[in-house]
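ugh ok so i messed up the first submission bc i forgot one of the chains. this is the corrected input, ALL of the components this time, i swear. 540 residues overall. if the numbers dont match what u have on ur side tell me asap before i send this to the collaborators (the ones from the other lab, u know who)
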Amino acid sequence: MNLPIYLDNNATTPMDPRVLEAMIPYFTQKFGNAASRNHSFGWVAEEAVDYAREQVAKLIGASEKEIIFTSGATEADNLAIKGVFEMYKDKGNHIITAVTEHKAVLDTCKHVEKLGARVTYLPVKADGLIDLAELEAAMTPETILISIMYGNNEIGVIQPVKEISAIAHKHGALFMTDATQAVGKIPVDVNADGIDLLACSAHKIYGPKGVGALYVRRKGPRVKVTAQMDGGGHERGMRSGTLNVPGIVGFGKAAELCYQEMESEAKRLSAMRDRLQSSLLELEESYVNGNQEHRLPHVANISFKYVEGEGLMMAMKDLAVSSGSACTSASLEPSYVLKSLGLSDDLAHSSIRYGLGRFTTDEDIDYAIDVTKKAVNHLRELSPLWEMFKEGLDLSKIEWAEH
Amino acid sequence: MAYSDKVIDHYTNPRNVGTLDKSSAKVGTGLVGAPECGDVMRLQIQVDDNNVITDAKFKTFGCGSAIASSSLATEWLKGKSIDDAMKIDNMDIVEELSLPPVKIHCSVLAEDAIKAAINDYRVKNGMAPIEAAKTHH
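and heres the new structure output, hopefully the right one now
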């Protein structure tokens, strides 16, 4: 076992060596511009991009013509929401999203609000799932788009996308999903799921950083988005800019590997995740955040009450995880995702997200269990709150001097 | 953001962790912060008849910098008169631990805990509490 151990695969994943191998020729010998139509350098590059497009399309059950390569999922989210709003604003100006979305969606929605959109931010239930009745009730004749993520980055909760898309289509709206955390991890099928637009990223699936894609449905309905990047008319005019050929080749290879290995990998990861979770829940006053039934196989978000997340991560110096604690951000606000589940701020401050991945081993999990338990116990010895809890004091009755 | 060696040292080997008898007239207790804010510090001092601090203990719920700030504070308090202890400034802690700007609030909390502990002791022993002379940011 090599230290440090990486269990932060929701943030990014290491690139699979097989992906790197596929990419290497496209930096040096096969360096052509995929838009060069008049010589073999261009043709070779274009052919590689076309192949990658097929690989990515296959992973989500799409046709290769429906894949628009971007610089990543953030750009894909921007293109989808801004592009749909600009294209369809004469039809209506209402967009529905949820409070637990990634900032790439929420901040883009804030942006289109300034341009005249009306956005509904649906709350979520205590388990992180949206309430379908509430979604249905929020629909209006003006609603042009529902944007709800597939799997949540912090808690791994999987939204009922089929039901959501059915509601969208019943009311004549489009359904877009940020599937960055779900694609390549669980089966995603744009047709079975009724998805009209889907954002995903290579670096979450063992591919390179700096490349992602937006799926844009071509049939039933034919979806159009207004380009947000103008220029040479690449990607069917929806996203100009010379294609990142090596990145796209890597994305394609990464997608292919996920397609081949996803089923067995999901089983392996969920078994390890479940073992990690059940061992950690042996610690008193520890709680799983989010729905455990509808959850990505590689994620567990756990709050260890009376210890603070950043302090905890510092005690686990050879274990890379992440926390919803305020102290890990400049804002000093704890995770908005955990707060929107109705978690009290102190539990949000006490959360740790474990994100397993393709290169996680059983030994890594043993180490993570051991080091987490030791760290939690150590910090509870230092925690005045733990002492008060052990003395039977009701912490909610204490008047805290908030600062 | 990497932690300074001193923060890591105090965090890894915290000084003076523990609890003094808060009902004793010779013990002053300061409990500051709030669980919702992600930091709670409890700092206690044991004071002798000459108003000199003979012992100090802490427990802190918070990040590494908060734990280090309170650990350092207990070291500094021991042997000081309560009047001198009142003069400990949060910026002294910032400097000693090389805290980055985003962690200055940890040092403020430690200063508040010191003052709260001293005032608790003063009130218990018939002295007027001292109002904080400055306002923090």
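quick check: Chain A touches chain B through 29 residues (CB under 8 Å). that seems consistent at least. Chain A has two domains: 5-10+262-397, 17-258.
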